[in-house]
Structures
1.
Amino acid sequence: MRTDLYQGHDYYNMDDLLSEEHKLIRETARAWVKQEVSPIIEKAFEDGKFPRHLLKGIGEIGGFGPYIPVEYGGAGLDQISYGLIMQELERCDSGLRSTSSVQSSLVMYPIWKYGNEEQRMKYLPKLATGEMIGCFGLTEPDHGSNPGGMTTNFKDMGDHYLLNGAKMWISNAPFADIAVVWAKDESGRIHGLVVERGMEGFSTPTMGGKWSLRASDTGELIFEDVKVPKENLLPNKSGLGAPLGCLDSARYGIAWGAIGAALDCYDVALRYSKERIQFDRPIAGFQLQQKKLAEMITEITKAQLLTFRLGQLRNEGKATSAQISMAKRNNVDMAINIAREARQILGGMGIINEYPIMRHMMNLESVITYEGTHDVHLLITGLDITGENAFK
Amino acid sequence: MKILVCISKAPDTTSKIAFKDNNTAFDENGVQFIVNPYDEWYALVRAIELKEAQGGSVTTITVGGADNDPIIRKALAIGADDAIRVDMEATDAFQVASEIAAKAKEGGFDLVLCGKETINNNGAVVGGMLAELLDAPYIPLATKLDVSGTTAEITRDIAGGEEVLTAQLPVVISAAKGMAEQRIPNMRGIMAARSKALNVAAPAGTEASTEVKSYSLPPAKGDCTYIDAENPAELIKKLHEEAKVI
Ligand SMILES: Cc1cc2nc3c(=O)[nH]c(=O)nc-3n(C[C@H](O)[C@H](O)[C@H](O)COP(=O)(O)OP(=O)(O)OC[C@H]3O[C@@H](n4cnc5c(N)ncnc54)[C@H](O)[C@@H]3O)c2cc1C
């Protein structure tokens, strides 16, 4: 890949709304990405492997649970800081951001919110540094958009639980040390359990053949009579609302991340359009290319405003799940469209891995699918505004 | 060892440069500021490395208004222990050097480091003036710095090779590329920087001894003409008849 010349774009002076510390956090993440990740990301994508040596660095820039309180090893930052870090990571690659948001929102968040003090102290500090890596098992082969239908289950055996079932499409699974697994008890109620690598009957086969999110490892979680110690059950919340609470946090991060991917595509396309000469002038001078670029920055700016406001609402504990759905859906769709337009601006160069656009475009196909598909989020908004449930 | 590092802000290299007040002042509107790279990447990082290896403290000093605080916080996030900001808008290098010298004397520093120049004004004179005012040796453009006991060993690039010098502390050194490698702050550093002292000090009140008459931008780059390598005669013709340089 070429030298990473990325520059942020802030058409509506949104930076005026950020604190100096926010900007330093963003600058730090951006500098780290440029130094450590940009030079290797194309290779990682091509090899279909998450570059694990980056874990420590992600921890150092606050990419693992930045909003987790300091006493548990987090940085105690606000939601805007979390968003900015997600934006900078996905600016480079959605897979990189996925690793970070799974660990932050889907592993650390439930342990922090639904776990007890021993569980928090046992896991959170190590997860914050990247010394320990987690994954989140909700989706099953037969239950994707409808996780409430899950069949993974556990039985109370007196001194332990016996866990059976299988999860699919699990980010970080192949190398995770722990898995936060959602399973039904004998009465059919959903609980979270922390399953540790090495427990007998627990395996994590890798899923191959992905054309998207290749720099993130995806796998299955298989539980065959796994004896899970009772103290590994997250005691403070149960029911489908528990995993959905984690998804709120992760989807919020994705809304920011998608802006990052869109900004990168726009940034590359804008620079290319000024440099590429056809018919004796830069292609940026042609109205058709200007239309693309002008619409891109317009959409990015709208998403930035939407998402910043959502961050304020989250800081105040007021953001609803439906508001988060709207931002996730809007921003990922915005990013995927910008990736497609940006690719066209680069002509043939748009399909080459010297530029990041095609990789973003492929990645975003996962991002528009996981954590609730594009359609599912629309139905969430539909339900919220009409009161009519269109899911069933 | 007590180390003082001079830190100043500089426009990000992608900034659009413009002037105001009849071309006598730099227009900061819309400009992103960064820590002057020579100060940050080399002087500050080497100071922190020396402190990490030998103990002591690293203090940064900046002459300027509160708009410098973000870059000072960054220096603290990278690892300086505390910071002094002399609260005045200095307009020339002698003013800056005099103000820093006053604080450096008060603080009794063993080593004073600065970047070889700022990337905006490229004056490269504060270090030399400061050394003179402190009555200390000045070693500019150092690419390597080690300290053992009270002796500093400094390497400088010179034409065709290197020069290795020693000097007794206290000494003033300006840092050039090679002295250290850029350090990206980490989240612990950013959090720690919140509670580190940024001491705002009243200026000693040095007057400026120069005044800027005007700034101007370099002439815009002209179009580039390609001439076939097989055709040097055309090159000569164009240089002679069109560019009129030969
Ligand atoms: C790379 C990747 C990583 C992932 N990581 C994780 C992870 O870490 N943990 C985890 O638990 N899961 C993960 N997932 C799973 C992801 O969340 C699911 O793929 C997603 O929820 C969709 O489920 P599905 O694939 O079974 O599709 P389905 O639910 O089968 O959906 C197929 C299509 O039907 C539509 N549809 C479904 N229901 C309705 C309805 N009621 N009305 C209208 N249309 C409907 C959908 O919108 C979609 O278009 C990951 C997925 C991918 C691709």
Note: Residues 135-232 of chain A form a domain with the Butyryl-CoA Dehydrogenase, subunit A; domain 2 fold (CATH 2.40.110.10).
2.
Amino acid sequence: MEFLRPSTWDEALAAKAEHPDAVPIAGGTDVMVELNFDRRRPPALLDLTRVASLADWAADGDRLRIGAGVTYRRIIDELGGRLPGLAMAARTVGSPQIRNRGTVGGNLGSASPAGDAHPPLLATGAEVEIGSVRGVRTVAVADFFQGPKRSVLAPDELIAAFLVPAATGPQQFAKVGTRNAMVIAVCSFALALDPQRRTIGTGIGSAGPTPLRATEAEALAAELPWEGKTLPDTIVQRFGELVGAAARPIDDVRGSAAYRRHALAVLGGRTLRWAWEEHRCA
Amino acid sequence: MSTTTVGAGAGIGTSPLRPDGTLKVTGEFAFSSDLWADRMLWGATLRSPHPRARIVGIDLTGAVATTGVHAVLTAEDVPGKKLYGLEHADQPVLAMGQVRYAGEPVAIVAADHPETARRAAAAIVVEYEVLPPITDPVAAIDAEETVHDRGNLLRHVPIRKGSLEATAPVVVTGEYEVGMQDQAFLGPESGLAIPAEDGGVDLFIATQWLHGDLGQVADCLGLPPSKVRLSLAGVGGAFGGREDVSMQVHACMLALHTGRPVKMVYSREESFHGHVHRHPARMWYEHGADLDGRLVYVKARIVLDGGAYASTSMAVVANATTLGVGPYKVPNVVVDGYAVYTNNPPCGAMRGFGAVQACFAYESQMDKLAAALGLDPVDVRVRNALEPGDTMPTGQVVHGPAPVADLLDRVRAAAPPAQRGDDLRELPGGVANTTHGEGVRRGVGYGIGIKNVGFSEGFDDYSTARVRLEVVGGEPAAVVHTAAAEVGQGLVTIQAQIVRTELGVEQVTVATADTTVGSAGSSSASRQTYVTGGAVKAACEAVRAAVLRRAGRDDVTLRGGRLVTEGGEVVADLVDVLGDRPIEETVEWRHKPTHPLDPRTGQGDAHVQYAFAAHRATVDVDVELGLVRVVEIATAQDVGRALHPQSVRGQIAGGTAQGLGLAVMEEIQVVDGLIRNPSFTDYLIPTILDVPPMRIDVLELGDPSAPYGLRGVGEPPTISSTPAIVAAIRAATGLALNRVPVRPEHLTGT
Ligand SMILES: Cc1cc2nc3c(=O)[nH]c(=O)nc-3n(C[C@H](O)[C@H](O)[C@H](O)COP(=O)(O)OP(=O)(O)OC[C@H]3O[C@@H](n4cnc5c(N)ncnc54)[C@H](O)[C@@H]3O)c2cc1C
């Protein structure tokens, strides 16, 4: 197996163009598992860890541009205040070792429906910046996933960064697993309130072929008493039901489809209440 | 011979540092998978993808043609007996004409690189005629389709005590189910076989029972036992999963065939297919009691799914059945236990060995009985608690302490855990942020269990110890040598402690366990400190007697390297008595004999010793999401005498955690004979955030018939923690919950 080690972004793009079947490796927490289990034997690995720009993040107007190689640990430590939803999700990823190495870019690259970074990125309307020797394009996270472990990435493309607005209101993330740490989501839900624009953003994880938005639930934003009033139980309940209904789950070893719908309804209601409480007290 | 010297200055009752402890924590311990030899080849196994199929043809061409491959072997190449098994030789070394479970070895390959070996194995083309698998153990009992020629019933154990027609005013019934649990030990199966000049083989292996392997390996290789030499390699853990042979015969066959050392290492996924698991159980119970809650009768039917091969199923079902009513006085008992062949993965030994499954059922029943009578669940148990002198359903009288009521009282009296705080980590779901308190209800539950220690039913259960006392560098020093497997339980340390206590010497070396000394029996059944500890003690006594003979005294003990009278007078230095003539004694030691069960009534003194533990579990349940957090465990156990108190607590904490795993998460999911979650991604075991703080109350009541009064420690904690946790979840939710592990959807009804 060839091991390609570009040291700049341009070199990386050139290498990917030249070796479209090379598998990029960032933290390696997905790639190495596949190699160790002999599920994958790519002809080449493209090591991205020496490309310094991938590990940078910066504010770009009211948006943040975060390099694909920024780890969960750094999201929690450096961006917890500006991206509370993503940071909450990052905290639930694996163990300290995995959070030290694993990256959001890798999570997107794997495009697993269970990737924990995806729901908060969906809820906040994030975009993925994709590069190749052909140029740069930007794709909404909602359009990035095409199916289980499939994304819009072309063979010569790499993920450069993701672009996400700094939080303009309360955000929440909640993940159901059958143990209290180190667990793949049975289902997860992210929510972002934007009190200025009076919108709710949503993201559902692990309950469909791709991460999903609950668009009908989002539409309830129009009915919320934004002027700092108490949230009626009926709305909370309705919101939860719509979140559950938006899921397209299956039965598998981790849980039943019916359970996932039910749990998402519960999480939908709870996270809306928590976010609303924060909004009212803000 | 490599040896281990254990921390100085500590006899029994103290907790010297274990020699493997620091190495394991720092990642430097050499596991069997780290073995290496010059010119070594790697073995790989081709396994059946089907739970039941006829083998129509095997085409080895692709494998043989692979560069780097040195051997490709099938059943035809097995030099000796083609079948092996711990109790009943029914398992083919390599499949012969048919496969009976998914994962059954069909062919083996040796190559110069592990990946080459794997690829070559994958290049073997096996043509199968796939048959519908037999997967329902209850239906299998008298089904016409059979897994083997002999019918599907492996063993039926009936127990009849008292009247068969007893009736009672209060009756509770229940049907219970236990899922298939995995041992999930560290360090998947691995070992290194080195061909020897005499035509024999040296096998370095992670196992629980060197001589158990030896007999089977020699038989299958067609070699006299003297030409097969086994040495224990670094074992990660076992919990029963290494009692059966896995890659032992395969590695030796490949080594003998190629004339080169061959190493085999299973991956975790292969390991899930490569060892036996805990028997899934279906159990039907009926308890009859008087209006005070005193048991009048228990009727039960227990069906254990043995899977495709016998392994230890016959003994497991005897345990489940003979211990099937729990540590209670029951005048009338009708219990029938069945072990059944199916095309599911083979099941055999796992910590608790049949007692776990039954305990979940009988303890659930005791809670039901308490509810039916409006009594406190602990009161009902105490009212029926077994006491010394009582008889078990087998008619066996319980001798020595049996502190059933005391253990229950202790866990009930333990201070309750604090109310939960606001930190997410104290809530069900933890940092996954699923609740801030919504839907969370607390529940408390109790469980008590009983386990037999040692091998039962007339098995000649012994251990051999060789102890040598000599002068090394001007100091008296002892070497102790047994074939007992250190599997992480701390046996190496215990052996040295015993020698220090008995012979009064500081320097004690524990030789690597191997088959150049007689059998120690298995490191299972909570027996090794009892039986090998007993053998080491007896060997020390023989050495001491020889010292005294040589010194011409019979009124002294050995202390601090000296011969000392009772009054404390030093009469000689051990160094002077020994001079340059070492004293060595080898002793075979047996516990008191056991007896078979009557095949019609199940009566008989089948067990050596009984051990008891009680648990109180406190849980917080998010009843809307079905997520559980075990908040605290209080447990009490009589260990007779704690030879190494820290290890005792380690066993109790670890066993309790394994029972927690069975209660709320650990299950090999088998559908149509196929394991759906053969990895640690989806076979979940508790993490440190799932295991709660434990209050551990260790009693040392002393069993007069055991060495130092000790009582086996390893299994009891696993047995009663499961029902205690489930009882606590029931208390929090009001649900019936008749199956473990309890999954979130059982709690939410979705
Ligand atoms: C023990 C363990 C626990 C885990 N727990 C969780 C969990 O709780 N939640 C969760 O979501 N995940 C979990 N994971 C999975 C994994 O850690 C995450 O998916 C992580 O985000 C992957 O990041 P990485 O940098 O390690 O990616 P890598 O393994 O390096 O790469 C992952 C994929 O992305 C591709 N890739 C990487 N970078 C780029 C790029 N810049 N452009 C294009 N493609 C790229 C790779 O080719 C590969 O296909 C766990 C993994 C392990 C081993």
Note: The pocket of flavin-adenine dinucleotide is lined by residues A 23-31, 33, 48, 68, 92-94, 98, 101-103, 105-107, 109-110, 115-116, 158-159, 182 (CB under 6 Å).
